[in-house]
Amino acid sequence: MLLAIEQGNTNTLFAVHDGTDWVAQWRTATESTRTADEYAVWLSQLLTMRGLDIRQLDGCIISSVVPQSIFNLRNLSRRYLNVEPLVIGDNVDLGIGVRILKPSEAGADRLVNAIGAHLAYPGDLVIIDSGTATTFDVVAADGAFEGGVIAPGINLSLQALHEAAAMLPRIAIQRPERVIGKDTVSNMQSGVFWGYVALIEGLVARIKAEWGNPMTVIGTGGVASLFEGATDSIDRFDPDLTIRGLLEIWRRNTHIKDV
User: Is the distance from CB of 62 to CB of 74 less than 8 angstroms?
Assistant: First the structure.
């Protein structure tokens, strides 16, 4: 069975594929100092709860945007799975073109998403990944990564608003019923939520105008579901882009087609 690890700046996803389906997925807060032994204890307990055993895992692929964590994740695979992991960006063949000025600067998560989206959707694509940052990635019809946009994530903006303005409280993100708020909290919720909807709609419109051809827009990421039903600019919401991409990269690099 394959262990796929996708690590963002805020959360880390662990997913297990049994050769046919994804049989388990868990998220944990990203902590760059967490050791391989700590990961192993945590993962073993969760596997046991699903009737699985860490000794059943015989493959591992890692995508991380936190360089200081890769050492410990690599050691988790080596010590407890007894396999050398595939690490995105570490001489792994992605099988796609990266048409930007400095291909080495493309984030691992963005390239993995590009592969996962191209497998599922035809034509030119825009991928909106809502996480610590909100990224807009353009993927050509041939699967190549063409670049995109990076904006602060909605949680990051909310945190900055609270920390920089002494009178503004820390609030939870939710969709307000009205745009015009009647108190401080509803004012903030409207500004953050509808402000991000406007950001999405504005950037998607500009990307499409600049690209010049029809594009399908895919939403993914930890807070993407917040925007479902709030805008017509996103055509599909797909939470599985990343793990679909990781599985495909694993297949391409191990030449195993039935895993």
Answer: yes
Contact (CB, 8 A) for 27 and 11: yes
- The answer to whether residue 169 scores a pLDDT higher than 90 is no
The predicted model scores a pTM of: 0.86
134 annotated among ligand-binding-site residues: no
109 is catalytic: yes
Model confidence pLDDT, tens digit, residues 111-137:
999 999 999 999 999 999 988 889 999
What is the rounded CA–CA span in Å between residue 151 and residue 186?
23
Task: From the candidates 21, 37, 53, 109, give the one annotated as an active-site residue.
Answer: 109
Residues of the chain with CATH 3.30.420.40: 2-87, 103-244
* CATH node for 103-244: 3.30.420.40
Query: Does CATH number 3.40.50.970 belong to domain 2-87?
Result: no
- 129 labelled as ligand-binding? yes
pLDDT for the residue numbered 78: 95
> Can you tell me which residue has the tokens 């939403």?
219
Q: Is 135 annotated as a binding residue?
A: no
